[in-house]
Specification:
The chain has 224 residues and is an alpha/beta fold. The chain is built from nine helices and six strands; from the N terminus they run βαβαβαβαβαβαααα.
């Protein structure tokens, strides 16, 4: 069992997108995965139960109330092989609960000075939380809306590295397919977005945040 939490004190950086991608990609492989939405806006939960609902085996849960969430997270971790927790875009106790329960925390960041500052703060907070509960919590920054040819995107990645923040080699681009995902009942299977999703899953497996590929015949295994 493993818990992966998406966290940032800044809204609009791509936490929900990353949570949807991870949950749906793993469910498509046949992994027993739960998508837990701890954001009061319930964006991930609505997508999983309406847009994506009925066509998959992705377990979807929504709970932003801290006392109930504190009980639900370990319950889901016992019930499912993987729990993907999407948190609110502001500092609250629900985010702290999900970070404290996590085996790994992904901190999405889009190009912009504010995102770099917030990523640094969140990485430091995750590391401090790990020290306070006397166990390591792995953390990685995930670049989002990256345009490789632009100076701003290159600056984001170089600044993350200059600050010594741990980041994934994989980054998500500003592909149209991600914008369309909110209206479609499946992840993209072709193009740059599909390749990035495959690379993200592969990298998290290499970090041992995710279980080994259950089958060599699944779509995302073929893309890597």
């Amino acid at each position: 069992m493993a818990v992966i939490t998406l966290a940032s004190g800044k809204g609009g950086v791509g936490k929900t997108l990353a949570g949807i991608i991870l949950g749906a990609a793993l469910a498509a492989e046949g992994v027993d995965v739960a998508l837990l939405d701890a954001d009061p806006n319930k964006g991930a939960y609505r997508w999983a139960t309406t847009t994506y609902g009925g066509t998959n085996k992705l377990g979807a849960y929504a709970e932003a109330e801290t006392e109930r969430l504190a009980e639900l997270v370990p319950e889901l971790a016992d019930r499912h092989a993987i729990v993907i927790a999407d948190t609110a875009g502001f500092g609250n106790r629900s985010t702290v609960i999900c970070i404290g329960a996590a085996d790994g925390v992904l901190v999405p960041a889009t190009p912009g000075e504010g995102d770099i500052v917030e990523a640094e703060r969140m990485v430091a907070f995750v590391q401090a939380t790990g020290r306070s509960i006397r166990r390591d919590i792995a953390v990685r920054v995930l670049g989002n809306r990256i345009r490789r040819a632009t100076t701003l995107s290159r600056h984001l990645l170089s600044q993350i590295d200059a600050l010594g923040l741990p980041r994934l080699s994989t980054a998500l681009s500003e592909a149209v397919a991600y914008g369309e995902l909110g209206f479609l009942p499946a992840l993209p299977t072709t193009g740059h977005a599909a390749e990035e999703i495959a690379a993200l899953i592969t990298e998290l497996r290499a970090l041992e945040w995710l279980p080994a590929t259950p089958s060599d015949t699944n779509m995302y295994a073929r893309l890597t």
